Amino acid sequence: MAAGFKTAEPLEYHRSFLKENCRPDGRELVEFRTTTLNIGSISTAEGSALVKIGNTTVICGIKMELANPSVEAPNKGYIVPNVDLPPLCSSGFRPGAPGEQAQAASQFMADIIESSEVVKTEDLCIERGKLCWVLYCDLMCLDYDGNLLDTCTIALLAALKNAQLPEVTVNAETSLPEVDLKKRKPLQIHRHPVASSFCVFDNSILIVDPTGEEERLSTAQLTVVTDEDGRLCSVHKPGGTSLSGERLQECISRAQVRHREIRKLIDKVAQSVTSGK
Amino acid sequence: LRTTMEVCSSDGFNVTLREFGCEQCLLSRPDGSSSFIQGDTSVLAAVYGPAEVKVSKEIYDRATLEVVIQTKVGLPSVKERSQEQCVRETCEASLLSSLHPRSSLTLILQVLHNDGSLLSCFLNAACMAFMDAGLPMSCLFCGVTCAIASDGQVITDPTATQEKESRALLTFAIDSTEQKVLMSSTKGSFSVHELQECIAISQMASEKIFQFYRESVQRRYSKTL
User: Fold this and answer.
1) What's residue B15's pLDDT?
2) What CATH number should be reported for the domain whose range is B6-224?
């Protein structure tokens, strides 16, 4: 009976739970799903991480390439994030050119990198005006069950922390770059942005970490990105029903708590990786 | 072309907007059209619909809204897709699309000139075009862009130069009934206090913009009535 009710009237089904201040998967309204993190999962990439929030799985690989800096910014490298939502991860995505959600997510990741300066593009410059690094951050969703942006941000941050830059010297005679793959140093991470997503149900009820179904049924979505100093790197609300300044404040406070939880998780996993070596 | 100068100050904040201009019903083929000017930033909007919808895009209980942003030069990029998403979801929240189920609404936004605050100009042009098309809406909305300068000063409706020099850039869509935040898109980092200050300033600026909407429509109909 319950299964039939869920299929026929999904919104009513969710409402009946929210009325009792809980959700169909047994969580409270402000509770995140279990978050798991694995660092260095891809040995062929310079840095990588696999993140799971509930069922949602995102893998991030970082590849590096040498390039010429642009004329406008001769002392800066490039960071190119790309979010891929293949048909594998959900029936909602078709093969072919990336859809609006994937493109919007890619833009969101690029905005976070620029706003938070997690890695400064100046650090990627090898020789001013001549040589710099390009970091390709490929984020692939393996299983889509809501809250893509949070999962992607954690994956990106963990992969950047894991990434190792090989040493490059420019040969004075031939003026060709020489890469020493044995000598590597980690990227300098200046700040740690962590995202927290929220959904608004029936124009009033606020829930955190929405599942795929909750996202579909919700009337608005909001993602807040904070750093370790409690500053905001992004308040992204692409539309939907309106929120007052007070409700926004609630979300920010929750996001700051979430930031500390995720920082702890990343540090713990990073430590176990280095001690396991 | 109807233009008014908007300068006001209250509660210690100085909310200064550039010269605004709006013209409705300037294109003959679309069901609704408008051009919106904020200083030197200018956007042309056209609305088609309710019209027939492709079966693959049909939604059984409401209209399908499609937003297309056309840049002045070059092909639309990922940035435009992200802006399209912001505009579309804001419009979906205010349009009563359930009154036109299984039909399509198309909004085309053509950039004529970009001198900063482009996203807010998109939103304003969209709202005026929907009004011209006579589509039922639960509320009006407007866009306000705030730039936080390096000295912490908040500049409303910044120009492209002011945007470039700013430390953070925040764009909000505000609804006309409760003055709450419909959409928020930010760049750069800022404190929680600065965010709340920008929202408060945007809400004040929105009153001025809605007043401008009213005057603009009043002037348009005063000629025909």
Assistant:
1) 81
2) 3.30.230.70
